[in-house]
Each structure stands twice: as C-alpha cells, then as structure tokens.
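dumping this here so i dont lose it
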C-alpha cells in the first residue's frame, strides 16, 4: 500500500514538472532572444561609448574632461544631484509614512499624483516651469521686478529635476511599509518610545535597503535627466549646461572625443548604479 502511494506521488510530481517546464527549444529560444536584445540595445551602445571616448588615447580623453565647460557641467550636475536627492528622500519618507499610516480625504489622489512624473513627458514637465516662471509666465513679471532668475538658471534646473525624480523614493517605500504594517511601531510606542525614537529604532532599520534603493535610482535619474533640464536651462555654456546637455552640445560642435568622454562618465554612472542596484535587491530579498 505504501509503495503504491509513493508511486502515485511520484507520477503526480513528474506530471507537474513536465507541465510546468517548457521544452528545451522554447527555453533556448527565449534565452537567446533576451541575450541578443540586451546585447544589441544596451551592451553594444555602452561599449561603443567607452571605445569612442578612448579612441584617441588617455591623453585626449583627460584633456577633453579637463576643459572648463566640461568641468562646469560636471560641477553643475553634482550640485543638482546634491540638492535634489536629499529633498526627494525627505519627501519620499514623509509621503510613504503619511499614505501608509494615516487615513484622510484625498489619500487616493495623493497616491496618484506621486506617479504623475512617470506619465508626463520630461519636455512637458520643463515647459510647465517655463509657463510658471518664464518671462511671459504667471510669476514672470514679479520675478523680473525682484531680479529673481529661475528659468535659464540653476534654480529652474533644480526645480525640473526635483519634479522628474520625486516619485522614486516614495514608490520604493510605500509598498514595503504597507506590507510591514505598524505592529512593531505600536509596540515601541506602548513601551514609552517617542515618535522620533520609534522611527530611528524600528521603522528606519526595516526600510533602510528599500530607502537606499530609491535614493540610488533618484540620484541616477537626477544626474542623467535631459528633457526637462533642456527646456529650462537655456543651454548657456559654462553656466546652465549639465553633463547630458554638454554631451549634446559637444557632439553638435563636432567635438567627438569631448562628447564621448563626457558620455563615458554617465555610462560609468549607469554601470555603478546597476551593480549597486543588484546588491541592494539581494539585500532586500535576504531581508
């Protein structure tokens, strides 16, 4: 009787395996297609950028990067990221906490608005700020009267970048905090811990990997944003050109080495982001 039952279980397991597992030719076809697609549209372009950047040697490469306009673009890109990422990190934590811990009128609307930059073209996002703060915009006359420059200046670039990147941190934290619940936080509060103590001792350790993941994606997008920044920057050399804009300007001026040298920095950022993203995803899965 026991042997008969084991045979039936073995038959059922074998049938499940055969129904779940695709034929070998299907698996090979899908894997080959995926690898070919990734190689053609990701690996080859990245490799071409690195190859072109160093095609004239290390001297030409570092000479191109040491040009005043290139250094200014790198500096501005870092400034924008250093301002944008902390602001969006703070917003992401506050938004995630508000949405997952409180019920209030307009909660669904707030959740929807957080996703707005994902559905709006970056160029349209930049145009919105031009219509608000440009010379002919709603606040243009007041800004000009008080000699405040937003459009075609650094503040406009920061505003556009903040708008484009603000969903990244919040969108990583909201699902995690909803899944976590708030039992641990309630327990900490019942034991006498204050709000800040509960956050730093209970909430933050539980969300730290998702938070770092969102910060990483936010930083990568802030440094690589082109569309919205292109609209509000004015393309002023040495003043309002971020690194992506500088790549376009250099290439249009037939400075191929300069363009690809600048692009190699962004490509390197993409590779570092990918490596860190993989590590953080592994940390989250083990968590």
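and the seq i came up w/
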């Amino acid at each position: 009787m026991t042997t008969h039952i084991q045979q039936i279980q073995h038959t059922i397991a074998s049938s499940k395996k055969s129904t779940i597992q695709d034929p070998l030719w299907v698996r090979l076809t899908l894997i080959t297609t995926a690898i070919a697609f990734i190689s053609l549209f990701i690996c080859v372009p990245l490799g071409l950028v690195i190859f072109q950047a160093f095609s004239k040697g290390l001297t030409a490469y570092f000479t191109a990067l040491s040009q005043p306009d290139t250094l200014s673009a790198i500096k501005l890109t870092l400034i924008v990221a250093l301002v944008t990422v902390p602001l969006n990190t703070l917003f992401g934590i506050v938004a995630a906490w508000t949405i997952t811990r409180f019920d209030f009128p307009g909660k669904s609307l707030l959740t929807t608005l957080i996703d707005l930059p994902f559905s709006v073209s970056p160029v349209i996002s930049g145009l919105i700020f031009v219509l608000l703060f440009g010379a002919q915009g709603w606040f243009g006359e007041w800004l000009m009267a008080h000699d405040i420059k937003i459009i075609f200046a650094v503040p406009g670039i920061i505003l556009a970048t903040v708008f484009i990147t603000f969903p990244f941190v919040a969108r990583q934290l909201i699902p995690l905090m909803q899944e976590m619940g708030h039992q641990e936080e309630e327990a900490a509060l019942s034991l006498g811990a204050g709000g800040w103590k509960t956050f730093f001792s209970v909430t933050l350790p539980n969300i730290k990997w998702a938070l770092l993941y969102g910060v990483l994606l936010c930083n990568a997008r802030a440094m690589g944003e082109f569309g919205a920044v292109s609209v509000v920057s004015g393309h002023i050399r040495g003043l309002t050109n971020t690194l992506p804009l500088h790549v376009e300007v250099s290439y249009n001026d037939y400075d191929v080495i300069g363009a690809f040298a600048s692009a190699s920095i962004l490509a390197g950022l993409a590779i570092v982001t990918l490596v860190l993203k993989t590590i953080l995803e592994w940390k989250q899965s083990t968590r």
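The chain is about 80% helix and 0% strand.
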